[in-house]
Amino acid sequence: MPITPPALRPGDQVAIVGTARKVSSEEMAAAVEILTGWGLRVVLGESITAEHHQFAGSDELRARDFQRQLDNPEIRAIVCARGGYGTTRIIDRLDFADFTQHPKWIAGFSDITALNCHLLRMGYESIHGVMAFIFNQEGGEESLESLRRALFGEPIAYAAPAHPLNRPGAATGELVGGNLSLLQNLTGTASDCPTADRILFLEDIAEYLMNVDRMLVHLDRTGKLRDLAGLLVGHFTDPQDNAIPFGQTSYEIIDTYARKYGFPVAYGFPVGHEPQNMALICGRAARMVVDAEGVRLEYEQ
């Protein structure tokens, strides 16, 4: 069973670090204000003011900054600043030896899927949730509150309405998943995470439908779907298509491969690149129930 980092308490120190796309200190102002309002002390990593083309500093700088926060036992959580691309460029530079002595929450989504999966592969829970760059997005208040509850160890449970493609049933398993593109990209690496007997959740943004199909073919051929306990399909935002249409939506593509197996499936789960992006604890055992009313997800006690 994965190790759970200690819940945050008022007065704890947290760091905001850029592992991927660049951000400015001005863009972090709302997150600093909100985290401070939660009773936390906020440290901005050197990557927040750094810039190297599209990245939050060079690979060396971003890795050094993240390592510094990993190694500092006074930092009780790391909130990633923004996604985009760049986390996989530095992940093999990181040394988690001190982290294993003083585990802490690491939170983010999208490109941060690489860290979520890497930590779960190591045997530690992490949070797939809102990043600092969009703490103040309109309509994201419920998602932000779910992140706060996850960080502070408060109970969380979710529900979503029925979808025509849902397949009813119940499943229990540790949560694993995130951005489909990253999950496919991690296959065969040191951050690749087993999916057997787990509940997989998926989301993505601005992907061509043909690419969604290609990635599902790859996941299926590598056995990632075969032994799932269950599947939660989140937002597939802003899908792209070719001049000659692919002929299926993202959900219909996923259904093509999911229907080969018997696990329960729920579509339209509130996770992904939209304001409704509820915090999910990767590695935490959960129970999903899909019925005529929709889907309910609760963590095992």
UniProtKB/TrEMBL annotation:
DNA damage as UniProt keyword: no
Family from the record: Belongs to the peptidase S66 family.
LD-carboxypeptidase C-terminal domain mapped to chain residues: 172-288
UniProt signal peptide: none
Species this protein is from: Hymenobacter daecheongensis DSM 21074
Any one GO molecular-function label of the UniProt entry: serine-type peptidase activity
Residue ranges of domain LD-carboxypeptidase N-terminal in the record: 14-129
Keyword terms: Carboxypeptidase, Hydrolase, Protease, Serine protease
Pfam families linked to this entry: Peptidase_S66 (PF02016), Peptidase_S66C (PF17676)
Positions of the catalytic residues: S110 (nucleophile), E203 (charge relay system), H273 (charge relay system)
Protein name listed in UniProt: Muramoyltetrapeptide carboxypeptidase
Record-linked InterPro entries: Carboxypeptidase_A_C_sf, Class_I_gatase-like, LdcA_N, Peptidase_S66_N, Peptidase_S66C, S66_fam
GO aspect biological process, one term: proteolysis
Superkingdom of origin organism: Bacteria
